[in-house]
Amino acid sequence: MKKKATIHDIAKELNINASTVSRALADSPRVKAKTKDLIRAKALEMGYSRNHLASNLRRRKTSTIGVIVPNISRFFFSTAIAGMEAIASQQGYNLIICQSHDSTEREAQLIETLLAHQVDGLMISIAMDGDDRSHLQRIEDYEKPVVFFDRACHTIKGHNVLIDDYARAFEATEQLIQKGCKRIVHFAGQGDVSIYSERIKGYLAAMAKHGLEVKEEWIMKSRLKKLDGEEMAWKLMSMNPRPDGIFSANDIAAISAIDALREATLSIPEDIKVFGFSGEPISMFTSPNLSTVDQNPELMGNKAAEILLKQINGEEIPDSPTVIESKLVLRQSSN
Amino acid sequence: MKKKATIHDIAKELNINASTVSRALADSPRVKAKTKDLIRAKALEMGYSRNHLASNLRRRKTSTIGVIVPNISRFFFSTAIAGMEAIASQQGYNLIICQSHDSTEREAQLIETLLAHQVDGLMISIAMDGDDRSHLQRIEDYEKPVVFFDRACHTIKGHNVLIDDYARAFEATEQLIQKGCKRIVHFAGQGDVSIYSERIKGYLAAMAKHGLEVKEEWIMKSRLKKLDGEEMAWKLMSMNPRPDGIFSANDIAAISAIDALREATLSIPEDIKVFGFSGEPISMFTSPNLSTVDQNPELMGNKAAEILLKQINGEEIPDSPTVIESKLVLRQSSN
DNA sequence: TTGTACGCGTTATCAC
DNA sequence: GTGATAACGCGTACAA
User: Fold this and answer.
1) A59: which nucleotide lies closest, measuring CA to C1'?
2) Pairing of β A322-324 and β A94-99
3) Contact B321/B159 with Cβ under 8 angstroms?
4) Is residue B188 helix, strand or coil?
5) Which of A96, A159, A239, B139 has its CA 20 to 30 A from that of A210?
6) What is the pTM of this model?
7) Half-sphere exposure in the Cβ direction for A2 (13 Å, CA)
8) DSSP-assigned letter for residue B291
9) Poorest-confidence range of B3-12, B248-257, B324-333?
10) For residues A3 and A40, what is the distance between their CA atoms, to the nearest angstrom?
11) Using CB atoms, which residue from B79, B99, B112 is nearest to A73?
12) What is the pLDDT of residue B1?
């Protein structure tokens, strides 16, 4: 097992000092061009590559950013991460990506691990399985900058990057109303998390603006999974009078509801119009294809990374959240 | 800016030596239970957490695994990663996830960076934009274990975790034949990568077995993106006699082709039957929904991680590739 | 059971 | 422009 070359090995071979090697490889102006060339050639020859562990330890900086999302296999998050990565890698930063699976407990662990790895900053979309956010305090203890994205958080100092969930929910609901819906149910998310509460508010505000009553049973909370959507579809079909519109806080529930409704021989959008939320790619391919809200995840990732990097570089960032452009995507299901 | 506590700080507070603190926090049996309790309490009080950088440098082990995939936002890869993460985190390992965007050049950079970060091992699905694999040599130089998944690689020593692309392609083609297709085109991938060449072979073998001729123009190579699928659909419609079946090496091209064919008022599966590959979730929701091949990405991730961890722990792994179970998913488009 | 001393590989700081 | 030395924070062989 041959040992990896270090700057000392290179130095020894060339009969010079390790610090010169270090400087040369960092392209410091304080090393003669000729020596630099010599050192670089030797480094290449010996297959040297810098040990980032040691370097980071010494410099007290890792050029690494920790990212925590509920689940990387969801389109929204994987695309947001791609957006972050684009910016981060441009500036020589690497991402460590972790999944909380929406468990606060796991999130706490991950934060601890990432801090122990001396990440220079964090980007988090917080878990929504509870309202205890005390574990975030550790980030402040470590004085690391943090950006929260998609799901707002105000328990500790940190910038928020969001879309205007309220406005889009309002507009989506209003769109259904304008197409003639009068009895619109809302598939709401559960958990103490901003995105869902804002969407409920937007829905209620739109209904109120148009003088439409909202029955209590119309606000149906669930985890918005496939089965939840089907279940809610059956439930709403048993209501009398039957609702004529659905505004769902995500696409999955909306799509599975459509399937269930059509199985019960209802027509979409003729009998019931449906509006989703998230802009999942699937929404383009369903039949009828689904109206939804494009959350612009890539741009959100870009912005989150830009802001975090600014903070890492010592810039002051205004407290007010950064709002990412988002927009309705009108398709057949709400027409 | 208050400094973070180190083992020395804890030691000083308790008037003991730093090494005792180090041992206590590692739960070494060589420290009295009472001292341990004392130290742990103090550590908690001071908000101590171990500096992994220093620890890893000293131990020459990072408990970190580097993962390189073309694109994490693709369902297959994000699910495979989820599968890896499940196993890795069980054993106290973290993943650093990187995207090559199918660029060999970027892949080479990433490998260099990951090695410099002293990862304990690598899992790679190699980029397919060329046939130069010399950059992989660096992994051998560093004597790090590596597992290739999905896309086979034999240029350096390393285990492969794959599905049987040949067999599934054979079966999918045969399925189309059994449903009556006689003129089946193949949407093939391009690039020097095993998955696509195996799928072509499987297709050809099935055609040959049933005595069906394969015209040269029927093997249509492309990057299999949305536009490629549409383009190939138009092209095949201009063929005389018109093909009556499509076996596509991925789902995206198959789905966009279906859209184009239906736009041209052809019926699927009546006029043309279609079989995809990959098991993208979208395939469930299209109409008609798409027959495809479930690649079992989560299990593939599990296996890849298990095997790599064994290697990291010094176990010898047999050279022969690990083949993951995969299966056809029969739906309307091929019926 | 605890303390001493040193090394992991790099970089900052001072000297020349 | 280069060399010597210490320090980053931790872990461990050896001594006590």
Assistant:
1) C11
2) unpaired
3) yes
4) strand
5) A239
6) 0.91
7) 11
8) B
9) B3-12
10) 19
11) B79
12) 39
Determine the protein residue whose CA lies at the shortest distance from the C1' of C6: B58
Residue ranges of E strands in B71-120: 94-99
Could you give the maximum distance between any two Cα atoms of chain B, in Å? 90
The residue among A97, A111, A178 whose CA lies nearest residue B72 is: A97
What part of B 156-175 touches A (C-beta under 8 Å)?
none
pLDDT in tens, B90-149: 999 999 989 999 999 999 999 999 999 999 999 999 998 878 889 999 999 999 999 999
Picking from A328, A329, A326, the residue whose alpha carbon sits closest to that of residue A80 is: A326
Which candidate from B54, B82, B117 shows the least CB-CB separation from A52? B117
Residues of A in contact with B143 (CB under 8 A): 1-2
Rounded CA-CA distance B46/B48 in Å is: 5
* Residue A215: Cβ-neighbour burial (10 angstroms; 0-12, 13-18, 19+): exposed
Q: How confident is the model over B282-294, as pLDDT tens digits?
A: 898 888 999 999 9
The mean pLDDT of A174-186, rounded to a whole number, is: 98
User: What pLDDT score was predicted for residue A3?
Assistant: 64
Place of tokens 């439930």: A235
- Mark which residues 247-286 of B lie under 8 Å from A by CB: 255, 281-282, 285-286
Handedness of CA A194, A189, A211, A179 (dihedral sign): positive
Query: CA-CA distance, A86 to A92, in Å (whole number)?
Result: 10
Work out the burial of residue A213: count CB atoms within 10 Å of its CB; fewer than 13 is exposed, 13-18 middle, 19 or more buried.
Answer: exposed
Cross-chain residue pair A4–B62, CB shorter than 8 Å: no
**What is the overall mean pLDDT for chain A?**
95
